[in-house]
Amino acid sequence: MVLSFIIKKYYRKRRSFSTGFSLPEILVVIAISVVIGISVWTLFIDIFSSSRTAQGRLQIQQELQVILRRVSAELRSASASSVGSYVLATTTDSTLSFYVDRDNDGLKEQIRYFLQGTDLKKGILKPSGTPLGYTGSETVRTMVKNVRATSTPIFSYYDTNYAGTTTPLTQPVSASSIRLVKITVVVDDDINDALPPLVGTTQVSVRTIKDNL
Amino acid sequence: MSKGEMLVTVLVLASLGIVMLTGLVSWAGTNARVLRTATSRELSFHIAEAGIDYYRWHLAHAPTDYRDGTATSGPYIHEFRNKEGDVIGHFSLTITPPTVGSTIVRVRSTGSTLAEPTISRTVEVLFAIPSFAKYAWVLNSFVNFGSTANVYGPIHSNTGLRFDGVAYNLVTSATSTFDDPDHTGAKEFGVHTHSTPVDPLPPSAVPNRSDVFKAGRQFPVPAVDFTGIVSDLSLIKSAAQSAGRYFAASGVLGYHIVLKTNDTFDLYKVNTMYSKNGCSCTGTGCGTLSIKSGGETFVANYAFPTNGLIFVEDHVWINGTIDGARLTIGAARFPDNPSTRKNINVTNDIRYTRYDGSDVIGLIAQGDFNVGLVSEDDLRIDAAIIAQNGRIGRYSYSTGCSPNHARTLLTTYGMLGTNQRSGFWYDPDGYATRNYIYDANLLYAPPPSFPLTADQYVTISWEEIE
């Protein structure tokens, strides 16, 4: 009933040369607009998401750089502790602890970098008491998240014979033979995406125990 | 289209292009500058380190030249060249020579590049020739550390050592194998442990026992020269005679030095010691080694010498407290003869006021370092102690010496260097609890003229100055 009314009106208009769009035209336009709209929308979503991903990766990369620079600076200046213990305290695959006076107060803090779950954390322990001892509570904070375990350990160690391509010392390593520490941090914030993980690496020689000029 | 209509479009587009291009160029410029700065900073750091390495080399060849081979006081500026031989930067060295009686040289090196001379990096290093004070324990004889021992500083024995506790620094021995006198059986490693699992016997591979030797063990290493200390003692004697405090033989039993916090000391002559009176002890030369109440005569009060050296050509008893002083007290009789060697005896506390390295006492005895019979029940000795030919310890006293034979607590803060085997506990006499605390400040500031163990400088501290 309604349809016959519209058709009649349409023909009447046509006859009177009135202008306008026919229903099929409208439908086609709407269909095209929807297709274009969806494409544009998807494109924008994609752009934003890749920009977010890129930005995220860039940020991780920057964080890695900053952290590795900080570890290097600390490790370079490491020396015997305030109670006289050896410069390197723990030297395993995923934990490295050493002594350094970061805040120039004359006391050597024990700095411990360690992996807990997928977080690379840093613990700082100031010596206290009389006589001095490293018995207080450690301040721990997370440095890097989403660290992935790979075949390369986070901390690998080299002795005085290191010539650039030598294989690292096998665990358990004797702390007194270490001259160079290699740090490799592999970060993958989303293991399901196809993007390769980000790798940050640096090598540090502890200057107070360096004997090969 | 009207004539010239394109011109507007061209102008608009061209200016747009220029604006964008300018932005791009300036962005690229900034990036390049940042990169150049980063490179220069890195290169400056390496140049600064090259300066440090250079002076370490210089000191290895001229150990007492703190003026870079010149007669001026510095800073000393050197060119830094690349592999083509072109000068690409400079390092400037500021060298602080050691103070009297010390070997610590402070070298500050600032590196900069020719490309960006305003960017510089500075590294400061302390070089020192290691002294006996770098060890928590250094022994010429065998030593056995029990399972309760926690030792933080390095330990060395010229003979061999057994360690069953936890060592937080290097444990070294001058022998590769030796026969442990504490039990029968074949020869064992120069440094060995009976902490479960007991070490295998040589020639098996040395197991890595990071639970016992936290920093590892090394043997054989070069022996530490105890005999050579005699020449250090004679140097201390001549330096004490010229600019320190020197006391010739007392003519009685010896001297008693009471250290005071006002940088002076009281000197007494010791006339009588407590007699043994039915109390017996074992060991050659054993006695009460304790000054009888009223058994001494006051000589004088002296200021601490500026070079920190006090030398006594007799036995000496020491106690008291210092505040902000750095002293070395030597007791020896020359020429060195086993029958006339001099001892240092302690029955009362020797204390520091400050434990930040500003207070230090070195006690070097040609013979023994003894804790006498009538000693404090809770005895504290803050000092770096060396017994050149004898031992650091206390004689084993019989129950007839009651109540002084058995004591409760002995605490030492410093380091211990002994030629003969040390002993403070003979179950049931002696000190039941002994805490030997290593003073890590000795690493950076040993007592004045303390005997050295090597002749090469080592890096004891390295830091980048921001």
Walk me through the structure:
The complex is a heterodimer of chains A (213) and B (466). Chain A is α+β, with helices and mostly antiparallel strands and 213 residues long. In chain A, 32% of the residues lie in helices and 24% in strands. Chain A has helices at residues 2-15, 23-76; strands spanning 88-91, 95-100, 109-116, 119-125, 139-144, 155-158, 180-187, 198-205. In chain A, the strands form two sheets. Chain A has a five-stranded antiparallel beta sheet, covered by helices on one side. A three-stranded antiparallel beta sheet of chain A has the order 6-7-8, covered by helices on one side. In chain A, β3 (109-116) and β4 (119-125) form a beta hairpin. Chain A is elongated and about 100 Å long. Chain A starts with a helix and ends in an 8-residue tail after the last strand. The model of chain A has no long low-confidence stretch (mean pLDDT 86). With 466 residues, chain B is an alpha/beta fold. Helix content of chain B is 16%, strand content 35%. Chain B has helices at 5-61, 229-243, 441-444, and strands spanning 76-81, 87-96, 105-113, 120-128, 137-139, 143-145, 150-151, 155-157, 161-163, 166-167, 171-173, 177-178, 188-189, 191-192, 217-218, 245-247, 254-259, 264-270, 281-282, 296-303, 309-312, 316-322, 326-331, 344-346, 350-352, 360-365, 369-371, 378-387, 392-393, 396-397, 406-418, 430-438, 458-465. The radius of gyration of chain B is 31 Å and the shape is elongated. Classes of the chains: A alpha+beta (213), B alpha/beta (466). Chain A binds chain B through residues 73, 76-77, 79-86, 88-89, 101, 106, 130-132, 172-177, 207-208, 210, 213, and chain B through 53, 56-57, 125, 136, 152-154, 168-170, 208, 210, 213-216, 218, 355-357, 413, 437-440, 443, 459-464.
